[in-house]
Amino acid sequence: MITKLQNRHDLSDEEFLELLQTDSYDDVLHKAADEVRRSVYGDEVFLRGLIEFTNYCKNNCNYCGIRCGNTNVERYRLSKEEILSCCETGFKLGFRTFVLQGGEDPYFTDERICDLVKSIKDAYPGVAVTLSIGEKEKESYRKFKEAGADRYLLRHETATEEHYAALHPAELSLAHRKQCLFDLKELGFQVGAGFMVGSPGQTNEHLIADLRFLQKLQPDMIGIGPFIPHEDTIYRNEKAGDLAMTLRLLSILRLMFPYVLLPATTALATIDPKGREKGLKCGANVVMPNLSPVEFRKQYSLYDNKACTGEEAAECAACLEARVKAAGYRIVSSRGDVRR
Questions:
Q1: Which of the chain's ends, N or C, has fewer CB atoms near its CB within 10 Å?
Q2: pTM for this one?
Q3: CATH node for 16-332
Q4: Other residues' Cβ atoms within 10 Å of the Cβ of residue 273
């Protein structure tokens, strides 16, 4: 099965199920994934400077700590000046991609987002700007692209209708989220999708549906990470996603999509101190240190105990570089565009 994936042959649902439900393939799977990522990207690891610029959100998703129904969150919005200051810090540290991530905050209109994108591109020619601000209509995405945005991250979270309905409020639909992703592709964005691993109610069959959806979408980036419960949600007592399963899926995704930009996420680093390095060894090739002002990082609490200091933050760029090097890779200062 692993050889079939390496040779770009599709697996049946039954074969995917066998890979997912046993750990006996993991060592070979991880080794094969690392070989494939090295054949496309060598030992390069790309930096993404994460700027969590607002924790206001109009949605009330059942798993998310910044959902609108959570009254325990201290809300904040970064000013344009604060965002540009984050970019200045990151640029000096070698970052050539900035990721503006936030809840679906009505304050940040299309005009404000376009102004932010243009200002970053004007101040730092040659950098890439990634937006991760949720579901919009196609015309909004068109404006963002015309303003200079290069990439857009929108995790689909789950590709199965009933599972999506269990995780989200009734006014959100999986059909619209999927349409957003195809709209973004049509407009020429480098597009990122992805899903949580181990979210409440998830089955291996749901994960196979996610893989099938990604085969249809053919995204440039895929972000996956373990589900981690938040104390102010209905899933507060649910078990967190499994590290081994997350690493297994990272490797499967690398074999299925050799070209893809695949982050070793903060959620991985949250459930395991060496989670980021383990992710890199299983096929990941992107890390996303936090450039957000230190005083706001704990307020951007999507899940409990989020790693937001030390090597997970931009202040310790040298520490992160040393850890990546010790894992057998090297951080490069470039935009880190997809290589199809």
A1: C
A2: 0.94
A3: 3.20.20.70
A4: 12
